[in-house]
Amino acid sequence: MARHAVLPPGPKGLPVVGNLFPFRNDPLAFSTAIQRRYGNLVAVKIMNSYVICGFSPEYVRYCLMEHPRSFRSIQSEGGNLRLLLGDGLLTSEGDFHRQQRRLVQPSFHRQRIDQYADTMVNYTQDTLCGWHAGEEVEMASQMQRLTLRIILKTMFNVDDMKQIDTLGAAFNTVINQAPHRFFWLRGPLANLVGRTTKDQDEQFTNGRTTLDTFVSTLIQQRRSNKQDQGDILSMLLAASDEGESLSDQQIRDQVMTLMAAGHETAQNSLCWTFYLLAQHPRVYEKLLAELRTVLQGRAPTMKDLAQLPYLEWVMNESWRIYPPAWRIGRRAIEDIELDGYRFPAGTIFLLHQWVTHHMPELWGDPENFRPERWDPAHQQKLPQGVYFPFGGGPRICIGMPFAQMEVRLLLATILQQYYPQIVPHQHVVPLPRVTLRPRDGMHMILQPVA
Ligand code: HEM
């Protein structure tokens, strides 16, 4: 940022490093604290740069919805995600991103998504077959297996239980490693702080090789058998956008992106929802009563979802309290005039679901898990940008309808049979990595439903 620019208020931090350590070590608490102390537009000094945190809805609207073309996603600039996902949708930019988005979008149309409902429910019932009343499970890995299996089947017509655990472990290593790397800050000091160890690099490379081998085998098999399987992989292989086919590398990047983005967030959503329900038995009872009235003990279908409003409010509230995507980063590609400040091109803006979703001035009692706040009868109309678990504007999560259907179907299936309880004395801590995950997993006891 240019030296002469007047900055919004913010913490100066220590000499040389600025706020590096609190920003890096506890970004949830740090961001919440600076919003309370300095307000809704805060300049945070980190080493020799500033990042601008915009906490209130107008900044979310400005960056994501009103001026998306003035910014690019910091995910596209580097880091482990970019190394893994290449030029996939999440990590590409500009015309290429828009072209790829047009290509992939039809696979996420409502009618298409509705066809996945049976797979989602059947696989959940399969998972339930392996569970036993009173046993302890580690819910994060259970939900990872389930959501990964669902994404592989629905997107790529693969059902290979043998590989699921290996792929899950590889994703955990690759995506969640090296959290301290600030690839988007520039300069020698940033490189020094962001350095990874040889061990970490090796783990990353091994994980990526496992995932790469899986995806390239999948593509080769499909190319050789040439049958249209009616899934997104067949569509990508057949696609020619303005006469030009996608290269295997481009297909690989999209497949990897959908695999990664399609399970990690849903897995965490489910974990956090079980956690919240375990702490709020009255909410669970109300939800169970709704499920019983509508489903009468049978498995849910896509059509049932419209009859299950309380389930939808529970999910909305869970995404508010524990947003799986907890922060979105953008870099300005041109000068930005905002609230009387002039930010030069290159400035980084951070938008924080975690903070905005917990601001008392927006939510009244943000720390209370209260699904009723989503009842349209009481709910005041939320201004755009107050609630953005799926982002917004042209880069809004393409998998949103898929995820909204998936988590509700899975919960409706599981919660009729079990009410998972938190293992006593467990200290559950949200860990902000690429997504917000429970730091030490989520150990739960499967209490059978009477
Ligand atoms: C609860 C579940 C989910 C949450 C909370 C979530 C959240 C998000 C958010 C916040 C973004 C925007 C990132 C940004 O603006 O920089 C995003 C983008 C994306 N999501 Fe999701 N997501 C979820 C599920 C899914 C699923 C199931 C899929 C695929 C099957 C998916 C695929 C993607 C892709 C490909 C993008 C990039 C879109 C683009 O830039 O055009 N997501 N997601």
UniProtKB/TrEMBL annotation:
Pfam families attached to this UniProt entry: p450
Keyword presence, Metal-binding: yes
UniProt keyword annotations, A-Z: Heme, Iron, Metal-binding, Monooxygenase, Oxidoreductase
The keyword Ribosomal protein is annotated on this UniProt entry: no
Gene3D superfamilies: Cytochrome P450
Binding-site positions, heme: 397
Stored InterPro entries: Cyt_P450 (IPR001128), Cyt_P450_CS (IPR017972), Cyt_P450_E_grp-I (IPR002401), Cyt_P450_sf (IPR036396), Cytochrome_P450_Monoox (IPR050196)
Cofactor: heme
GO molecular function: heme binding; iron ion binding; monooxygenase activity; oxidoreductase activity, acting on paired donors, with incorporation or reduction of molecular oxygen
Family: Belongs to the cytochrome P450 family.
Protein name, as recorded: Cytochrome P450
